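Bumping my old thread because nobody answered last time. Still need a sequence for this structure:
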């Protein structure tokens, strides 16, 4: 496994070692000891999976502290543009976003620490996303930011007229009005 740091403190790209031959491929999508050897000690307690059609944008979602989640995100089928926004006040990257293409082809994973809003856009006909969380879903602490917020100006990788966004996500507040309680 290769762990790649980003300019966002704690936000890591994890590239598993893939064994390919004429039959296909094999890789370990999660190996606790390998993570520990790379200084990553997380106790995941919940796995989630979603299926989205092309143009679907989900997010930007997060949970307030003390229920903020660490997430290990990967794509099982298709391709997504995965996006996070740093909500940690006092961070050098506060209010900035990071995006990466995750796909069944590249098998990259994104380790998202607490204090980030998370979302993605389905770039393929169908996209299955799987992620592990270190805290349980707590609906009373769930918050979000409108994915079309002009301040963040996220380029989702699909035409604006092709967006499929839930009413709930369209009604989320902009970044400047979003409730957040993360500090560095």
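Sorry it took so long. Here it is:
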């Amino acid at each position: 496994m290769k762990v790649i740091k980003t300019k966002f403190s704690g936000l890591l790209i994890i590239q598993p070692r893939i064994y390919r031959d004429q039959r296909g491929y094999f890789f370990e999508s999660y190996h606790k000891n390998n993570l520990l050897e790379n200084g990553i000690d997380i106790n995941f307690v919940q796995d989630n999976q979603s299926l989205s059609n092309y143009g679907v944008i989900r997010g930007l979602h997060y949970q307030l502290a003390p229920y903020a989640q660490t997430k290990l995100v990967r794509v099982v089928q298709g391709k997504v543009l995965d996006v996070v926004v740093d909500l940690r006040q006092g961070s050098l990257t506060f209010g900035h976003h990071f995006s990466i293409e995750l796909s069944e082809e590249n098998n990259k994973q994104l380790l998202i620490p607490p204090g980030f809003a998370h979302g993605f856009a389905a770039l393929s006909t169908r996209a299955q996303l799987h992620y592990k969380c270190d805290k349980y879903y707590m609906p009373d602490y769930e918050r979000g930011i409108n994915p079309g917020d002009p301040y963040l100006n996220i380029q989702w990788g699909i035409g604006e007229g092709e967006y499929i966004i839930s009413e709930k996500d369209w009604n989320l507040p902009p970044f400047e009005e979003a409730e957040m309680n993360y500090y560095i």
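The chain is about 5% helix and 40% strand. Let me know if any region looks off to you.
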